[in-house]
Amino acid sequence: MSTTAPRIEINLTKVQQNARSLVTRLAAQGISVTGVTKATLGSPEIARAFLSGGVLGLGDSRVSNLKRMQQGNIKTRFLLTRSPMLSEVDAVVRYSNSSLNSELSTINRLSGAAQKIGRCHGIILMVEMGDLREGILPLNLPESARAVVALPNVQLEGIGCNLACYGGVQPDAAKMAELSALAEMLEQHTGVDLSVISGGNSANLAWALSNAGCGRINNLRLGESILLGRETLARQAIDGLHTDAFTIVAEVIESKIKPSKPYGHVGQAAFGQPDTPLDRGDICRSILAIGRQDCDSDGLSPPSGVKILGASSDHLIVETDSEPLAIGSEIAFQPNYSALLSAMTSAFVYKVTNAHC
Ligand SMILES: *Cc1c(COP(=O)(O)O)cnc(C)c1O
Predict the structure, then answer these.
(1) pLDDT per residue over 223-255, tens digit each?
(2) How far, in Å, is the centroid of ligand 1 from the Cα of 357?
(3) How high is the pLDDT of residue 75?
């Protein structure tokens, strides 16, 4: 491993094993996995770990990430998971095989863009099921599906939904039964067989693995659970998965015994109103060279004996129990999804992968 800090150490073997485990368990329920790479800035190495773990294809919210994976020689089916912008339809049909959609005017333009380069672009219509992020209201679904079927160079591949992302609405058996029923209704209505019924994301795992039968749902789009080994409703570790495939490492640049409470007249700090810590006398305070430009410090779990007090743009301030940390020593943190996403997309954080995958 490199000694440059700050860095994120990526264990590709653990990512691959997480993917393999979920792919195998879900296959037993008749569900395929689209690996969602958006937290990894389209890293071709991580994409390769997903694919060697058996995912059916890769999904990302950003066309630039899809492009990076393809330039990194990744060959699979690519899904754009965020509804396309009108301004990017040409790139969407070039760099993805299909996309999740909820606006007919956009699908119209995708059809035109696909026609121009002689391709057929797959459309998965997203259905609003209560979380109130993207989706067509069920009432309007038949008419939308009919419109898609009538367009050239696009193919209605199926329907999908996304829960627990904005409103925190849980993907339970009732919601999934409703999506299954919508699929059946649409097939009758359009006469088209829907090949993909995509039930959701990592928040769907408790439902999918409960052995209660998945109806028509035959696909999930999984990111966080593969990367961090946790389901996302309560962030519980999933049995048999690694929760430590990623580690964020930062270096100590100051270490002193100092007061626990700031002194002087207190106004706003760099990021607004500061907390008012209790006066606990002198404590062991250290500064690590990692800040908000590097990753979301609220999402870092420190090792035992180290407590995070706060962060500014470039500094993470920690307290230690026993003795001050040595200057130049390194501290390793476990990131949550937010810290992972921010570290992977920060230009300041070195990405270091284990060699063998
Ligand atoms: C991010 C995203 C996913 C993956 O979500 P995870 O919680 O990381 O599994 C799936 N579908 C859509 C539409 C998304 O935006």
Answers:
(1) 999 999 999 999 999 999 999 999 999 999 999
(2) 25
(3) 98
Q: Burial of 127 by CB count in 10 Å (0-12 exposed, 13-18 middle, 19+ buried)? A: buried
- CA distances 228 to 32, 88, 163, Å, are 19, 31, 19
Contact yes or no for 57/77 (Cβ under 8 A): yes
Among 38, 175, 256, 261, the active-site one is 38
What CA–CA distance (Å, rounded) separates 123 from 104?
11
Q: What does the pLDDT look like over 9-29, one tens digit per residue?
A: 999 999 999 999 999 999 999
Q: At what angle do helices 173-190 and 141-150 cross, to 10 degrees?
A: 50
Ligand 1: centre distance to CA 38 (Å): 8
Hey, how many other C-beta atoms are within 10 angstroms of the C-beta on 275? 9
**CA atoms 248, 249, 255, 257: torsion sign:** positive
Ligand 1 binding site (Cβ under 6 Å of any ligand atom): 36, 38, 61, 81, 100, 162, 201-202, 221-225, 232
Whole-model pTM above 0.85? yes
Q: Which atom of ligand 1 is nearest to the CA of 203?
A: 7
268-277 long-range CB contacts below 8 Å, 24 or more apart? 269/312, 270/312, 270/313, 271/312, 274/310, 275/310, 277/309
Distance 131 CA to ligand 1 centre (A): 13
Question: 24 C-alpha to center of ligand 1: Å?
Answer: 19
The Cα diameter of the chain in Å comes to 74
The protein residue whose alpha carbon is closest to atom 3 in ligand 1 is 201
Q: Would the pLDDT of 49 be above 90?
A: yes
Element of type H or E holding 196: strand 196-198
- Report residue 31: phi and psi, to 5°: -120, 130
Determine which residue's CA is closest to atom 2 belonging to ligand 1.
201
